[in-house]
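Quiz preparation item.
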């Protein structure tokens, strides 16, 4: 990556020496002899680094730094001086200069200083590009939906995004898209170009939760890394920390999170100092936290701190009109991933997919479509691609009773007919049929044999 370095110095020999040094390292040099020239260039071009002489013929170097700041120019600056004044060096560093070099140059030190700053600049650009790519990829892969309830919770999310200090609690069953909504909020907020750190609280072993979240100092405990560890809270500085499945945290960790929300500071394990942080917290859970409060499993004070803005994601079965949109979206995603050209699915299959209750919600639907696209050989997804795992039979709400029901069959016979239809749809697989019907295999067998189920 070639970078642009702006040299501002009225000494022809110094300017030529620095230009050779810069170009020899594969970078580009921009030369200005006066402060006026430098300001004109800065208005048109943002360099990756500025080498600025303290004494210029028209504008003092320190004054020029102040004018750059007024222009919101954030390029790192190395101040150069032929006098080596301690006062000038201190003033330059106070104004934000990265370093202060004196003439005549030690070229090795000049080269090392420039390369160190350029390495940090390069890393910062790569991180910014990565975040930009992540953001673009997220919005490409995200599906909003069209049902009224979906539009409602996305409207709430956009509103919450505008207030970047607002704590948010996202609730909903597993697989409803809680992490997607957290990303949507982050990328629509003023923190969109800052870190988004995700923590699955249920996946962290109890003994490692606090060290992962809050970090630790070197030697904090037996087995601690010699250099210490930066916690997830600190990694999220200026950005967003998403705490997924927060209801699985034990009481001591809950207390520390509450303290952070109150004080906006934390203390690493084994540390003797506190760290002030500007981090937005978004939490999510599939649990009933209000019930957990009553049983003592979750802190009531933490609940109210998190529940400033609550957004509930309904299960997929309560927003069925979104299902075809998700289906088309996932087909497009996996067409790209597998190099396929699937155009859609048959109307019969779509009808069954929409009718199914999807206990695993969007995550289950995604997995089913992924498998079908992978197996597909034609242009459309057909019913056989969703078996033996995947497409279940129509849910109870879409079951059509046989014609002989007009004779007003007993409930037991109707039940047996329905179970037979479910069994037929999974090609006689009793285990799968029992799972769909939410009954045991033994009860399935008794219904098919017509045995009494008791009163």
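Solution:
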């Amino acid at each position: 990556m070639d970078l642009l370095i702006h040299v501002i110095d009225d000494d022809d020999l110094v300017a030529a020496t620095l230009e050779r040094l810069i170009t020899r390292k594969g970078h580009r040099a921009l030369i200005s002899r006066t402060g006026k020239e430098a300001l004109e260039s800065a208005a048109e071009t943002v360099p990756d680094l500025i080498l600025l002489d303290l004494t210029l013929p028209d504008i003092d170097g320190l004054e020029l730094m102040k004018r750059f700041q007024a222009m919101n120019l954030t390029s790192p600056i190395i101040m150069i001086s032929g006098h080596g004044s301690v006062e000038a060096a201190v003033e330059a560093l106070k104004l934000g200069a990265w370093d202060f070099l004196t003439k005549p140059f030690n070229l090795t030190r000049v080269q090392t200083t420039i390369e160190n700053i350029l390495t940090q600049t390069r890393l910062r650009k790569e991180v910014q590009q990565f975040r930009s790519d992540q953001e673009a990829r997220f919005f490409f892969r995200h599906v909003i939906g069209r049902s009224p309830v979906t539009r409602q919770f996305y409207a709430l999310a956009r509103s919450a995004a505008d207030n970047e200090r607002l704590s948010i609690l996202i609730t909903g069953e597993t697989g409803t898209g809680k992490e997607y909504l957290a990303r949507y909020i982050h990328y629509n907020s003023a923190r969109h170009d800052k870190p988004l750190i995700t923590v699955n609280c249920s996946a962290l072993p109890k003994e490692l939760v606090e060290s992962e979240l809050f970090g630790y100092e070197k030697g904090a405990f037996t087995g601690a890394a010699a250099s210490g560890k930066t916690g997830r809270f600190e990694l999220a500085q200026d950005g967003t920390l998403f705490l997924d499945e927060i209801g699985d945290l034990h009481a001591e960790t809950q207390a520390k999170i509450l303290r952070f929300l109150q004080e906006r500071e934390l203390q690493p394990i084994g540390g003797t100092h506190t760290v002030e942080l500007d981090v937005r917290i978004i939490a999510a859970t599939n649990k009933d936290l209000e019930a957990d409060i009553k049983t003592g499993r979750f802190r009531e004070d933490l609940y109210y701190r998190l529940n400033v803005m609550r957004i509930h994601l309904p299960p997929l079965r309560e927003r069925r009109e979104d299902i075809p949109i998700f289906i088309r979206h996932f087909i497009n995603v996996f067409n790209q991933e597998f190099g396929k050209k699937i155009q859609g699915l048959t109307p019969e299959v779509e009808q069954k997919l929409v009718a199914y209750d999807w206990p695993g919600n969007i995550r289950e639907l995604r997995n089913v479509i992924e498998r079908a696209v992978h197996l597909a050989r034609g242009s459309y997804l057909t019913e056989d691609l969703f078996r033996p795992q995947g497409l279940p039979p129509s849910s109870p709400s879409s079951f059509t009773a046989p014609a002989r029901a007009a004779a007003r069959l007993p409930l037991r016979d109707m039940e047996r007919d329905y179970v037979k239809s479910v069994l037929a749809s999974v090609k006689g697989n009793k285990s799968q049929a029992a799972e769909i019907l939410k009954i045991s295999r033994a009860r399935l067998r008794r219904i098919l044999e017509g045995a009494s189920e008791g009163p």
